[in-house]
Amino acid sequence: MATICFYISDYGYGHASRTIALIRELLTGIPDIRIIVKGDGPAPFIRESLDPTRVTVLRQQEPEPVIVDLPGPRGIDRMQTVNNFRDWMTRWDSRISAEEDFISGQGIDLVISDVPAHPISAASRAGVPGLVVSNFTWEAIYRHLLPDSPEAGLLFRAYREAALAFVLPFEYGMEIFSLSRRVPLLNRRITRGREEMRRRCGIADHEVLVYVGPGLPLRKDGIHPPGRTIHYLMSSRADPIAGPASLTIPVQETETQDWIGMCDLVVTRCGYSTVSEAVAARVPLMVWQRDGFAEDQVIAANIVKLGIGEVFSPEEILSPSRIGETISCLPEFGERFDSLPPQFTGNGARAIAGTVMEYLV
Predict the structure, then answer these.
(1) How far apart are CA 301 and CA 313, in angstroms?
(2) Do 108 and 129 form a contact (C-beta atoms < 8 A)?
């Protein structure tokens, strides 16, 4: 029985959700396989989303440092983020050695990282192929925050040891890999369709449902298009908006992509997970960028280039009339989904799984 170990970055739920999509595809295609997942913050979410008889989820004892967000939509706390990163990197060699021992001790045949760097070095030392699946690297993120950083140089050298990198759309900093392959969007597929979800939640076809992601204290008193009722769908982690929200995604819900898929508009920060699930479900976007997080600039630029949404500052999105104005443009945005390039419409999980199977053989 082949064993794959996944290493998951803990910043948000995006890395975890797309890893879940890939693991589901692998479990379907390879009946005789053992999977271990190592992460921290999203560990319960991963555990609840996958078959526990085939997937073992372990919490990292010393997880990667994460980007520290400032309250609300103001951006990231650069000083705290940099301090955490530098402190964590002081034990870089010992972390690689610990993972090398784990990989060898567990008889792991393949390591897949989204997107910690040190497990790639550990896999190389253990004589095991290390694959990367991501749209960005932490080397690029920290290099943006710390130009000429020796710590970022260590990440660079670790990533260079990867046997192969699968480059997802909205890419940033992925050119550093010795061997790479571009693949379509990687995201969880919808399990309950738009009509079923809206019927279950009491949203009529002619009504507008707007998803509001966490971190934005959105007001509900915007200008509504004539003759249309607007409902709001809130993340379970979102701050309350003025007045009661129409709907809130239940805390225990794991298949949040189904909730995104029933919406008419998604208002969110430029995170890969929510943006990719909106694109897959053909839902237009209103996004804002976090100051200091370089990946956001790339995602925002692609949304504008594809013509499937708009980019605003947090202050603009908070304007009472902004939601209503964007809703009036939804038919125009919707038409653009018919002409998206294949990398935004294909099945990334299937494309990656095929190559993973080759490595196991």
Answers:
(1) 14
(2) no
